[in-house]
Write a structure and sequence with these properties.
The protein has two helices and two strands, in the order ααββ. By secondary structure, it is α+β, with helices and mostly antiparallel strands. It has one domain (about 1-124). Strands 1-2 form a two-stranded antiparallel sheet. A hairpin with a 7-residue loop joins β1 (about 85-100) and β2 (about 110-124). The termini are far apart.
């Protein structure tokens, strides 16, 4: 484009045809520069948008970490407070013994033993 413009400017006659040719070349260059400007402007807007999204994601992650830390802290305080004033003690313990007949050829009895224990919270 620039080479064409220089060539037409240097070797053209001072007639009206040369001026209109120079104007058309200048118009072409102007159109090219406008298109290039639009492309660069779009790229700049896209970069700004991507930067804003990155900052927003970082802010969300930071907020999530802060909320997570707060929940863990409250849970530890609650466990500490409850753990200091209450403790677990056995409530009931059952022991069962029994025998059952098996389906074997020797008619042996099978022994069964069960131990069940339930717990409850007791205030200190």
């Amino acid at each position: 484009m620039i080479k064409l413009l220089l060539h037409s400017w240097l070797f053209s006659s001072p007639s009206l045809a040369g001026v209109s040719q120079q104007q058309s070349v200048l118009n072409q260059m102007l159109q090219f520069l406008k298109k290039r400007y639009r492309v660069l402007k779009m790229k700049y807007r896209t970069l700004k948008l991507l930067r804003r999204r990155k900052i927003a994601r970082k802010r969300i992650r930071t907020t999530e970490k802060a909320v997570q830390a707060l929940i863990i802290g409250l849970a530890l305080v609650l466990i500490f407070l409850v753990g200091c004033s209450y403790n677990m003690v056995p409530h009931e313990t059952k022991i069962e013994y029994g025998t059952t007949a098996t389906d074997s050829k020797n008619d042996k009895l099978q022994e069964k033993r069960f131990i069940t224990q339930s717990w409850r919270w007791n205030k200190r």
